[in-house]
Structures are given as C-alpha cells and as structure tokens.
Design brief:
two-stranded parallel ribbon; Four Helix Bundle (Hemerythrin (Met), subunit A); mainly alpha; elongated; two-stranded antiparallel ribbon; Arc Repressor Mutant, subunit A; about 5% strand
Length: about 250
C-alpha cells in the first residue's frame, strides 16, 4: 500500500495545477500522441513556419519513434488544417490564408460576443473584480510589462468562456484556439497594440461588472475587429522577408 500511495503522489505532482486528471490522463502517451504534440507545438510557436517542410525524419530520430506514428500525427494535423500533404512532394506546414484568417475572426467575434452577453449575467463579481484589479495594476507609462499585460488579458477571454453557461458555445470557441495561438505567434507584438488591447480588456470587464450584456458583446466585436485588422496588416506589410508566408484567396 505505501508503494501505491507513492505512485499516486507522483501522478498528482505531474498533473496540471488546478485540474483533476481523468483516469485516462495517467496513461502513458501513445507514440502518435507524442509525435502529434511535438510537431503541433513547433507549428504553433512558429518554429516551423508556413510553407516549411515538416522534417519527419528529425522527429522520428529525436523522439525515437518509427515512421508510422509520425505519419499518423501529420495526418491528424492535416485534418486540423495545420499541415498540407502534397503527393510526391512532401509534408508542409500550411500557409496562412488571409481570407481564412478574416473569416475565423468573424466567426470568433460572433461566438465570443454571444458568450460575453451570457457571461455578463453569470460571471462571479469577485472573479471579475479580482481580474480587473490585476489588469489595472500594470503600469502604462515608463517600463511597461507588455508580456504580463498580454498574458493577464488572455484571462478575460477565459473567464467569459467559463461563465457563458453554454457548453456547446464554449466548445466551439475552444476548437478554434490552436489557430489563434498560431496567429498570435506570427503577429508583430508592438507595445502600442498590446496597450490598446489592454484598455479594451478593462472596458470589457467593466461592462461585465455592470451586467451590461449588450455592451459586453459590442466591445468584444470591436476588440476582434481591431485584432483582425492589425494581424492582417502586419502579415501583409510588417513581416520581414524571412517571416510569415501567406496566400490570398478570392
């Protein structure tokens, strides 16, 4: 029994903070899952850039896997829209399509606007005030902690999803998050853009605290309109020659 307790303790130590792992979470990752996570992480972090060939053999070697699970991982990523497999040519990171980016932002603004409308009636006041105080504590002049400001701002969106009261809506928003993580990693992070988003996050929290669902939805719409326009402008005009590669679909 002491040995069993030690094993349980070790599993708990490796579980993500604040989450209870399901029974399956303690099982060892399959070879395909390991390859999938490794390749996907490199794509989302822009280590593998749009149009880059996926170095399948490197993953086989570094992860000490056979080619089959790595191949299965690339097929899964193809279904998710992150990889293109071209017969007789190879496996490549999918290009960013400007029309797809625009369309995804339009869909997310609608979904999250509705989530904010619902969250205005449901989000706990204490959680809203705590997050607002944390955001308001960031300095806006002098040496600005843009990273901390940005990371804390993401929690505004998380709070909205968690308290929208609609699991289908929440799941639909979450299903898009990998693409938005990739968009953020490719976007030029200018201090003025982060500060502008910071002000928008504060205004969104104020509308939620006022229980004004219509204003919360309108502010979310405006927030994603600004984010979409900035990203598209930076991809078209602000990227260095070795930076993100995009296609345009009409």
């Amino acid at each position: 029994m002491p040995g069993m307790r030690r094993k349980t303790a070790r599993r708990a130590a490796h579980a993500p903070s604040g989450r209870t792992e399901p029974a399956s979470g303690s099982r060892k990752l399959s070879a395909m899952d390991r390859a999938y996570r490794a390749i996907k992480a490199d794509i989302l972090a822009n280590v593998l850039r749009p149009g880059d060939a996926v170095p399948v053999e490197r993953y086989v070697r570094d992860l000490r896997l056979s080619r089959t699970p790595v191949r299965e991982a690339t097929l899964r990523l193809q279904r998710e829209g992150l990889i293109d497999i071209r017969p007789r040519l190879g496996t490549f990171v999918s290009y960013l399509d400007l029309r797809q980016i625009r369309d995804m932002y339009r869909v997310r603004r609608l979904l999250e606007g509705e989530a904010a409308r619902e969250a205005a009636a449901r989000a706990p006041e204490e959680a809203l005030r705590t997050l607002r105080d944390q955001l308001a504590a960031f300095r806006e002049t002098g040496e600005i902690d843009t990273r901390g400001m940005s990371e804390t701002g993401k929690r505004v969106h998380l709070l909205i999803w968690e308290h929208c009261g609609n699991e289908v809506l929440r799941s639909m928003i979450l299903s898009m998050q990998d693409h938005f993580t990739r968009f953020r990693s490719l976007s030029i992070q200018l201090p003025e853009k982060i500060l502008s988003s910071h002000h928008e996050h504060l205004a969104i929290l104020d509308s939620l605290l006022a229980r004004d669902g219509e204003r919360a939805a309108a502010l979310i719409h405006q927030h994603f309109d600004h984010a979409s326009q900035f990203l598209l402008d930076s991809l078209l005009h602000g990227s260095p020659a070795e930076g993100p590669r995009v296609t345009v679909t009409f």
